[in-house]
Amino acid sequence: MRTRLAIALLGAGLGACGGTTAPQPVELFTRVDAAPTPYVDPGTERFSVAPVEAVGATRAGTLVVAGDGRVQEVVAGALTRRTLYANGSLDALGAVAQVSPRVEGGAWLAAANGLFVLEGEYVSASPLSEGRGGVFSVVERSAGALEGLWFASDSGLVRRKGSALDALLVPGLVTVKQVAISGDGARGFAAGEGGLRLLSVVEGRLMAQEPVLTLTDVSHVAAGRTVLGALAREGLVIVDPGRTPAWRLFPLTGHTLLALAGDGTADVLWLRTADGVLAVEGDTVKRLEVAAAASVSLALTPGGDVLVSSEDGVRRLRTGVGTTDVSFARDLAPWLSTTCGACHSTYTNLPDFAPRAEDALRRVKNGDMPRCDGSTRCAQPLSPSDYAVLDGWIRGGKQP
Fold this sequence. Notes:
By secondary structure, this protein is mainly beta. Helices cover 8% and strands 40% of the residues.
């Protein structure tokens, strides 16, 4: 069932649409002038392919590359072309803007000729975008107040939840070119002509909020597990619900910011620059050198690896976990007993640990855990390979 709905405007940071602009409330956001530090080389897998319009991953984490009307997926270490098929005949994609994991498996492709589905060996047109023109951005979430499939098209912002397919009117946005929803499904960003809006559900009603700071030329939006990010002329803007104030501005002076992607299982945002990639997590910015490319494309796999176009095709930066096939009883409980048991004896109990898992991973990443003598930080924090079993268990859906 198709409907057309108007999103309500929540108390705007700079005054309601059509009203006069109030003085910028500086106390409502924090400016973070963080200098990037080197990111330890995680290892790289290279794929020679051209041209590259978009890179992304399937639900299973396999690499997908789109360009020049072709869609290729990495199978057994090699790029394999997928058959473009729809309604009994070959169907042209047009330029592909984004590749995004699909909850039921495979991937969504946002393309000039509509929304497409990669499933198995085939790529086919989705009827969900019929009559809506080109699709610029797509994301799907399986939980939270904003669960469902979201895509930005020539006809505006569309959401499918269950059998309902709603065209959404976002206050203040003439067009919607970008959409991102946090991994927990609690909040989102929509951007287009007219600026940026923060999406959320308040008392059961879908709401849109203006930014609390002036932003110009918003070009990209992305989401982590709970945080949201947007690229504007002013720099990287982040909404982090765990911070006060929640809105944060990273000017990142001296860096040309070209693309943005988020890790939906962790609160890390990745940026493509003219000569590398930046990882932003909390107040920390790390830089990894990657050569410039003719096209700019950036994406994350469900396992946390970074996919980026480069001068010789596509690179897969092994920044994530090796596997998400992690069992609590078989793999994680013994690790928790050895690593955390001295201070947290109940962590080996699945019901007790599961709701604390994300916070534990955050504290392990920043070196706050484990405590070597129970009170002070260890001189040598755990490395990513040391806590990969915890990261992989969360990404794999917390399997028993």
